[in-house]
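Input for the complex:
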Amino acid sequence: MAEKKVTLIREFTKGLWDENPILRMVLGTCPTLAVTTSAINGFSMGLAVFFTLVMSSLIISLARKLIPNEVRIAAFIVVIATFVTVTDRVMAAFYPEISAALGPFIPLIVVNCIVLARQEAFASKNPVGRSVIDAIGMSVGFTLVLLALGSIRELIGNGTIFSLQIMPRNFTTWMVMALPPGAFLMLGFFIGIANWINAREKRA
Amino acid sequence: MNKSLRLIVVLTTVSLVSGFVLAILNKYTAPRIELNQNKALSEAVGFVIPDKKTCDVRVIEGLSFYIGKDAKGQLAGIAFVAEGDGFQSRLKIIVGMDARFEKIVKIKVLQQAETPGLGTKIDNDPTNKTNPQWFSEQFCDLAVGKEITYVKNQTADKSKTQIQAITGATISSKAVVDIINQAIKTHRAVYLNKVN
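Predicted:
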């Protein structure tokens, strides 16, 4: 019993670091690069993926024995697309400003590799509880990286975090950080640092 | 059950359930989304025709006009949405004209996704702490007997219908000018023709 509990926690924590979707598996980098121009955009994107991933994992894990192998990808995509549409419409109805800022990237969660990969690799083979915990871990890991990327890019590119002035008023903003090259630079640094920490751990 | 029949049944069921869920969701969110859009538009019309108390929408030859009237029921101004391509995104700008269609009252960028930090200054320039909306405010009270033109690296002369382009975003600035010129031309022709 005690052993099972440990593995459940492991199921959650692996998404935060060891199998972090962005830093370790480099999945879903398109929205990662595109929307992290500010902390709030990165965080909202993370939340949208969180909802989609957890709900899709729940439903697909429940129905895993009913879906024949031959049509599994088609069935997964329909389920994922349904939840993405739900997220998109609810955001447009209740948070029109965030919806306008994220633009086409909410509908594009449908083709986000993280969501489909978790269904294929995990939810379709594991019980419901475990699948949901796996999905929560993965999306929290995704959200944290997006939040960190967005915060740093907003801080250097605009002098603010969550629109709060952090840098001194006379700080010259680095425009490049708000532009696409800044996203590549920052993501490169993030993955580099993650690899460096991992390499050190292995040697120790 | 026959294998291929099973595939068909499963996929059909999944899609049916999905469609059903989305139909119910749409029933609840669609009115709210429309309300949001109308609210944003009516706020924008109020912004570009500051004197308006009431507003009618009139569609003439496929073009929409927002006709603002002041407290006494007098014509306060006419607004319309100008649309076109910017540097990297679709621009939507609402233009408020005076009652005689001779002068711009105010403009406001409704929708844009230009280069952050450069082209986005057409709407909001955070580097200009005293007046972040300096670009769109240049269009205030601009007489449009002639076409609007833009200048770079020199002071714009309002009497010559000039505005100052944004440094580093000449194409976005030019796009705004072109879109507004074009929209004024088509809307003025249709409106004056119909009203007089």
